[in-house]
Amino acid sequence: MTAPTIACDNLVRIYQTEGIEVIALQGLDLYVDSGELVAIVGASGSGKSTLLNILSGNDEPTAGRVTVAGHDLLEMSARDRVRYRRDVAGFIWQQTARGLMPFLTAAENVTLPLLLAGAGRRERRTRAGELLELLGIGYCRDRRPSEMSGGEQQRCAIAVAVANRPEVLFADEPTGELDSATATEVFGALRSTNAELGTTVVIVTHDPAVAEHVDRTVAIRDGRTSSEVLRRTEITADGHERVIAEEYAVLDRAGRVQLPRDFVTTLGLRERVRLELEPDHVGVWQAQTGNSGNRDEEVDE
Question: How many domains does the chain divide into?
Answer without folding.
Answer: 2
